[in-house]
Amino acid sequence: MSYRILIVDDSKLARMAVAKVLGAVHPDWVRVEAANADEAVARAGETAVDLAVLDFNMPGRDGLALVAELHALKPGMPLAVISANHQTEIVQRVGEAGATFLAKPLTEAALRSFLDSAVKRLEAAKT
Q1: Do 114 and 102 form a contact (C-beta atoms < 8 A)?
Q2: DSSP per-residue codes, 59-106
C-alpha cells in the first residue's frame, strides 16, 4: 500500500537525502516536502499525509514544537524527528513528545525501521 509522507527540513539537501533513502525503501510512496514548520502545518492541513519525518533544528519553531502541532492536527500520526544532536536529553524529549528519534546522517536501516513500525500503527488503526 502506498502512503503519503511529509518530509520537513530547512535544508533542501537534507530533504533530498531523506527522499533518496525513502525511494530505496518505498519507491511508490508519495513525498510531500516542507522547508519549515509553517509550511509543514499548511501541507498537512491541505494534503492527506499519513506520517512525517521532521528535522529537529529549524528556524522558527523546532521539530518538537512541530510534533505537538501535527499531533493536534492529526492525532496518532507516526512522526520521526531527525537530528545530528544525539544527546540523551534530546532523544528523551523526542520520545516524550510521542515521536521516534532518528540520527543524522539518516541510514536506510534506521528509516526502514521507523517506516515498518509506522505502517504497523497505520494498519492497526484501520481495524
Answers
A1: yes
A2: SSS-HHHHHHHHHHHSTT--EEEEES---HHHHHHHHHTT-EEEESSP
CB neighbour list of residue 114: distance below 8 Å, 6 or more residues apart: 53, 78, 80, 100, 102
Contact 29, 5 (CB under 8 A): yes
Angle ∠(86,88,57) on CA atoms, nearest 5: 45
How many residues in the chain?
127
Q: Give the cell for residue 116.
A: 515498518
pLDDT surpassing 90 at residue 43: yes
Query: Is the model's pLDDT at 127 over the cut of 90?
Result: no
Nearest to 94 by CA among 48, 119, 57: 57
All structural domains of the chain: 4-126 (3.40.50.2300)
Mean pLDDT of 96-124: 95
pTM of the predicted model as reported, rounded to 2 decimal places:
0.95
Label residue 4 exposed, middle or buried (CB < 10 Å: 0-12, 13-18, 19+).
middle
In 3D, which of 24, 17, 36, 29 has the Cα closest to residue 106? Answer: 17
Is residue 26 scored above 90 in pLDDT? yes
